[in-house]
Write a structure and sequence with these properties.
CATH superfamily: Lipid/polyisoprenoid-binding, YceI-like
CATH topology: Lipocalin
Number of helices: 2
Low-confidence stretches: 1-8, 11-16
Order of helices and strands: HEEEEHEEEEE
Strand content: over 45%
CATH class: Mainly Beta
Distance between the termini: 12 Å
Largest sheet: 8 strands, antiparallel, barrel
Structural class: mainly beta
Mean pLDDT: 88
Number of domains: 1
Length: 182
Protein backbone atom coordinates (compact mmCIF):
# COMPACT_ATOMS: atom_id res chain seq x y z
CA UNK A 1 0.00 0.00 0.00
CA UNK A 2 2.87 2.38 0.76
CA UNK A 3 4.29 2.03 -2.76
CA UNK A 4 0.82 2.78 -4.15
CA UNK A 5 0.64 5.98 -2.09
CA UNK A 6 4.10 7.01 -3.31
CA UNK A 7 3.01 6.50 -6.93
CA UNK A 8 -0.13 8.58 -6.37
CA UNK A 9 1.81 11.36 -4.67
CA UNK A 10 4.33 11.45 -7.51
CA UNK A 11 1.51 12.14 -9.97
CA UNK A 12 0.73 15.39 -8.19
CA UNK A 13 3.59 17.74 -8.99
CA UNK A 14 3.28 20.49 -6.39
CA UNK A 15 3.95 20.30 -2.67
CA UNK A 16 0.99 18.69 -0.95
CA UNK A 17 -0.56 18.00 2.40
CA UNK A 18 -1.70 14.38 2.73
CA UNK A 19 -5.19 15.52 3.83
CA UNK A 20 -5.61 17.21 0.42
CA UNK A 21 -5.50 13.83 -1.34
CA UNK A 22 -8.44 11.48 -1.22
CA UNK A 23 -8.11 8.02 -2.69
CA UNK A 24 -9.71 4.66 -3.23
CA UNK A 25 -7.78 1.45 -3.81
CA UNK A 26 -10.97 -0.28 -4.97
CA UNK A 27 -12.96 1.98 -7.29
CA UNK A 28 -15.31 0.20 -9.68
CA UNK A 29 -15.08 0.30 -13.45
CA UNK A 30 -17.48 -1.61 -15.67
CA UNK A 31 -18.13 -1.75 -19.36
CA UNK A 32 -20.93 -3.01 -21.56
CA UNK A 33 -21.17 -3.79 -25.25
CA UNK A 34 -24.43 -4.76 -26.91
CA UNK A 35 -25.07 -6.25 -30.34
CA UNK A 36 -28.02 -8.22 -31.71
CA UNK A 37 -25.92 -11.37 -31.35
CA UNK A 38 -24.37 -10.95 -27.91
CA UNK A 39 -24.01 -8.67 -24.89
CA UNK A 40 -20.60 -8.37 -23.31
CA UNK A 41 -20.13 -7.03 -19.79
CA UNK A 42 -17.18 -6.91 -17.43
CA UNK A 43 -16.23 -5.18 -14.22
CA UNK A 44 -13.29 -4.54 -11.96
CA UNK A 45 -13.35 -3.36 -8.37
CA UNK A 46 -9.57 -2.97 -8.28
CA UNK A 47 -9.12 0.47 -9.84
CA UNK A 48 -7.04 2.99 -7.92
CA UNK A 49 -8.46 6.50 -7.86
CA UNK A 50 -7.10 9.70 -6.34
CA UNK A 51 -8.16 13.34 -6.31
CA UNK A 52 -6.30 16.31 -4.86
CA UNK A 53 -9.10 18.51 -3.53
CA UNK A 54 -6.92 21.65 -3.60
CA UNK A 55 -5.37 21.38 -7.08
CA UNK A 56 -8.27 19.37 -8.62
CA UNK A 57 -5.79 16.85 -10.09
CA UNK A 58 -7.37 13.46 -10.83
CA UNK A 59 -5.71 10.07 -11.31
CA UNK A 60 -7.16 6.64 -12.13
CA UNK A 61 -5.36 3.38 -12.85
CA UNK A 62 -6.72 -0.10 -13.45
CA UNK A 63 -5.01 -3.37 -14.25
CA UNK A 64 -6.71 -4.52 -17.45
CA UNK A 65 -6.45 -8.16 -16.35
CA UNK A 66 -8.59 -7.35 -13.29
CA UNK A 67 -11.79 -7.17 -15.37
CA UNK A 68 -14.07 -10.13 -14.70
CA UNK A 69 -16.53 -11.46 -17.28
CA UNK A 70 -19.43 -13.88 -16.85
CA UNK A 71 -17.85 -16.20 -19.42
CA UNK A 72 -14.22 -17.14 -18.89
CA UNK A 73 -13.67 -17.43 -22.65
CA UNK A 74 -14.68 -13.77 -23.08
CA UNK A 75 -12.20 -12.81 -20.36
CA UNK A 76 -9.46 -14.81 -22.06
CA UNK A 77 -10.16 -13.21 -25.47
CA UNK A 78 -10.31 -9.74 -23.92
CA UNK A 79 -6.90 -10.12 -22.29
CA UNK A 80 -5.11 -12.05 -25.02
CA UNK A 81 -6.61 -10.86 -28.31
CA UNK A 82 -8.21 -7.45 -27.87
CA UNK A 83 -6.71 -5.41 -25.03
CA UNK A 84 -3.45 -7.43 -24.97
CA UNK A 85 -3.07 -7.14 -21.20
CA UNK A 86 0.47 -8.52 -21.08
CA UNK A 87 1.67 -5.86 -23.53
CA UNK A 88 -0.59 -3.05 -22.22
CA UNK A 89 -1.25 -3.97 -18.57
CA UNK A 90 -2.95 -0.80 -17.36
CA UNK A 91 -5.50 1.81 -18.28
CA UNK A 92 -4.97 5.29 -16.82
CA UNK A 93 -6.43 8.75 -16.62
CA UNK A 94 -4.37 11.74 -15.54
CA UNK A 95 -6.48 14.86 -15.59
CA UNK A 96 -7.88 17.91 -13.88
CA UNK A 97 -11.36 18.99 -12.83
CA UNK A 98 -12.38 21.96 -14.99
CA UNK A 99 -14.95 23.59 -12.73
CA UNK A 100 -14.21 25.88 -9.79
CA UNK A 101 -15.75 23.70 -7.08
CA UNK A 102 -14.83 23.44 -3.40
CA UNK A 103 -14.41 19.72 -2.79
CA UNK A 104 -13.88 20.34 0.93
CA UNK A 105 -17.55 21.36 1.36
CA UNK A 106 -20.49 18.95 1.45
CA UNK A 107 -22.58 19.01 -1.71
CA UNK A 108 -23.22 17.49 -5.11
CA UNK A 109 -21.08 18.80 -7.96
CA UNK A 110 -21.49 18.15 -11.67
CA UNK A 111 -17.99 18.34 -13.11
CA UNK A 112 -15.93 17.60 -16.18
CA UNK A 113 -12.40 16.26 -16.12
CA UNK A 114 -10.01 16.95 -18.97
CA UNK A 115 -7.03 14.66 -19.19
CA UNK A 116 -4.94 12.04 -20.87
CA UNK A 117 -6.78 8.73 -21.09
CA UNK A 118 -4.62 5.75 -22.00
CA UNK A 119 -5.67 2.23 -22.93
CA UNK A 120 -4.10 -0.33 -25.24
CA UNK A 121 -0.98 1.86 -25.47
CA UNK A 122 -2.91 4.77 -27.02
CA UNK A 123 -3.28 8.09 -25.20
CA UNK A 124 -5.96 10.60 -26.08
CA UNK A 125 -6.84 13.88 -24.43
CA UNK A 126 -10.53 13.65 -23.52
CA UNK A 127 -13.22 15.33 -21.50
CA UNK A 128 -15.22 13.19 -19.08
CA UNK A 129 -18.51 14.27 -17.43
CA UNK A 130 -19.14 13.15 -13.89
CA UNK A 131 -20.67 13.81 -10.52
CA UNK A 132 -18.89 14.19 -7.20
CA UNK A 133 -20.82 14.00 -3.95
CA UNK A 134 -18.87 15.38 -1.00
CA UNK A 135 -20.05 14.11 2.37
CA UNK A 136 -18.15 14.66 5.61
CA UNK A 137 -14.67 14.56 4.10
CA UNK A 138 -15.11 11.79 1.57
CA UNK A 139 -15.98 11.91 -2.14
CA UNK A 140 -18.30 9.61 -4.05
CA UNK A 141 -17.58 9.81 -7.75
CA UNK A 142 -19.61 8.61 -10.72
CA UNK A 143 -18.88 8.91 -14.42
CA UNK A 144 -20.17 7.38 -17.64
CA UNK A 145 -18.64 7.63 -21.10
CA UNK A 146 -18.14 5.72 -24.32
CA UNK A 147 -14.94 4.30 -25.77
CA UNK A 148 -14.71 3.73 -29.52
CA UNK A 149 -12.49 0.67 -29.92
CA UNK A 150 -10.97 1.90 -33.20
CA UNK A 151 -9.79 5.11 -31.46
CA UNK A 152 -7.54 2.97 -29.27
CA UNK A 153 -6.40 0.60 -32.02
CA UNK A 154 -8.34 -2.32 -30.55
CA UNK A 155 -8.90 -4.57 -33.52
CA UNK A 156 -11.81 -6.96 -33.72
CA UNK A 157 -11.33 -10.01 -35.98
CA UNK A 158 -13.81 -10.18 -38.87
CA UNK A 159 -15.08 -13.54 -37.65
CA UNK A 160 -16.55 -11.95 -34.46
CA UNK A 161 -17.18 -8.44 -35.79
CA UNK A 162 -20.95 -8.78 -35.36
CA UNK A 163 -20.53 -9.97 -31.75
CA UNK A 164 -18.74 -6.86 -30.48
CA UNK A 165 -20.00 -3.28 -30.68
CA UNK A 166 -17.77 -0.56 -32.15
CA UNK A 167 -18.30 1.53 -29.02
CA UNK A 168 -18.29 0.33 -25.41
CA UNK A 169 -20.19 2.05 -22.58
CA UNK A 170 -17.99 2.56 -19.51
CA UNK A 171 -19.12 3.40 -15.97
CA UNK A 172 -16.89 4.42 -13.08
CA UNK A 173 -17.78 4.85 -9.42
CA UNK A 174 -15.99 4.87 -6.14
CA UNK A 175 -15.69 6.37 -2.70
CA UNK A 176 -12.48 8.28 -2.04
CA UNK A 177 -11.28 8.91 1.50
CA UNK A 178 -8.37 10.90 2.98
CA UNK A 179 -5.05 9.15 3.15
CA UNK A 180 -4.39 7.73 6.61
CA UNK A 181 -1.97 9.73 8.77
CA UNK A 182 1.67 8.57 8.75
Amino acid sequence: MKSLIIIILSVFTIQLNAQDILMSPNANISFFSSTPIEDIAAKSDKAVAAINVKTKDVFFKVQMSSFVFKKSLMQEHFNENYIESEKYPTGTLKGKINEDVDLTKNGTYNVTVTGDFTIHGVTQNRIFPGTIVVSDGQLEITCAFDVKLADYKIEIPTVVLKNIAESVAVKVNGVLKPLPPK
